[in-house]
Amino acid sequence: MFFENTVKSFDIEENAMKKVIKILVLGERSVGKTTLLQKYCTKEKGIRRKVKHTIGCDMHIKLMENGKYLEFWELSGDKQY
């Protein structure tokens, strides 16, 4: 009984992972990576003037019309990260 539930749970997670496309976003500091991703993922109008620098890593998610998810992993442009 326990094994059957575990297998069903694994199948669901495996199918969900097939619907995720991961994209790594890299670039120099202060070039607009965060602004571009916020605009694309949230459909914001205009440009934010005060965006805080990304520290380490940030993730943005967008659901596409075909049911797939785009996961954008944005890495800080600072050399220390």
Notes on the structure:
With 81 residues, the chain is α+β, with helices and mostly antiparallel strands. The N terminus is likely disordered. A three-stranded mixed beta sheet has the order 1-3-2, covered by helices on one side. It has a domain of 56 residues. A hairpin with a 5-residue loop joins strand 2 and strand 3.
What's the helix and strand layout?
Elements: H1 2-17, E1 20-25, H2 33-42, E2 57-63, E3 69-75
Parallel strand pairs: 1-3
Antiparallel strand pairs: 2-3
End-to-end span in angstroms? 47 Å
Radius of gyration: 17 Å
In which order are the strands of the major sheet placed?
A: 1-3-2
Q: Which shape, going by the Cα principal axes?
A: flat
Helix-strand pattern, N to C? HEHEE
Count the E strands: 3
User: What's the quaternary structure here?
Assistant: single chain
Give a short overview.
This protein is α+β, with helices and mostly antiparallel strands and 81 residues long. It has 2 helices and 3 strands, in the order αβαββ.
State the main characteristics.
81 residues, three-stranded mixed sheet, 3 strands, single chain, disordered N terminus, alpha+beta, 2 helices
